[in-house]
Each structure stands twice: as C-alpha cells, then as structure tokens.
Amino acid sequence: MATQVERSSATREKVIAATIACLVERGYPGVTIAAVAERAGVSRGAVTHQYPDKARLVVEVVEEIGRRRTDEVLAMLEDIPAGPRRVEVGLDALWDKFNDPIYTAALEVYVAARTDPKLHPRVLQLEEDLDEAIRAVIRAMAGPVRSPRRLEVRADVLLNTMRGLALMYATGAPTEPLDRAWAQTRADARDALLALAR
What we know:
Elements lengths: L3 H23 L6 H8 L3 H7 L3 H25 L5 H15 L2 H13 L6 H23 L5 H23 L4 H22 L2
Helix pairs in contact: 1-2, 1-4, 1-6, 2-3, 4-5, 4-6, 4-7, 5-7, 5-9, 6-7, 7-8, 8-9
C-alpha cells in the first residue's frame, strides 16, 4: 500500500502534467484550478493544497519542469569528456528542451504576465531562475574557458536566439527558414564555445 508521501507525490505529478496540458491547449486564460483538477483526476482541494492560487500553480509548475529539464541535460553531460562532442550533445539537448510542450506552456505564462500584476513579479523571478539554469548548462558544455565573461555573453546570445527561434516554431511559422537559422546558430555556438576553451 502506498504511503502518504507516495500518494502526495503521485498527485503532484498528475497536477503538473495536467497544468502543462491545460496551458498548451487552453492558454493561460483557460487554466483554472477546476480544469486542472478535472484533467488530473483529483479533487480541487488536492490541487489547492499544494498550489493555493492559479498564479502560483502555473509559475511553480513551469519552474519545476524547467529545472528538471536542465538537470537532465547536466546529468547527460557529466559522462561526456570536454570537447566538441560534449558541446554538440549539449546544444542538441538544450534545443530539444526548447521544442518541448513546456516551452509553449511557459510562453502562455510569460505573455499573461505582461498585463497581470499578480503574475508579473513571479514570472520575472521564474525567468531569472530558468535563465541561470540554462547558463549553467552552457558553462558545463564549454568546460574550463579562458574568459568566463566572454562565455557569459555567448551564453546570453545563444539563450536568446534559441528562445526567439522556439517562439517562432511555437507560433507555427514556416519551418524551413527556422531550421536553417537553427543550423547556423548551432554551428556558430559550437565554434564559439570551442574557441573559448582553455
């Protein structure tokens, strides 16, 4: 028989999956505690016990999944020696994360935060935390470098380019030019990160 901790963890995972699905399918305005509870197959009380309001629900879910995704990439990189393969694997893994439904869900939250005074400060902190997690992945990809400052600049350029391209993919823009842009971005980032290596 499952323990209370195991049941609580299972409920939380259902709520997380349901929240992401609701954000992707309905957008932020269509996400409610009731809709998430119904989708997850749990009571409203089970949702509000862990997430007392909608803003906290969506921000904490996006943050949790974003953290998990970057942790997965970091764990993958640990087994690969520094060098070209490590950079390439890291770039491809990061790009996969930007093409995950979590990014579409995050976009819905970011757009809603523009005009929602309750959501706005939480999303600013979320963005800061996720950006730092992605920078940590890029630092891990590069390994020891001659100029940490130049690496941070390169990381910010790569992060914002991936974010912009992923936004265009998410909105249904024609993929051929986006594929070309990503291929060039990947090649440029690979060369830049390897050039910074000690």
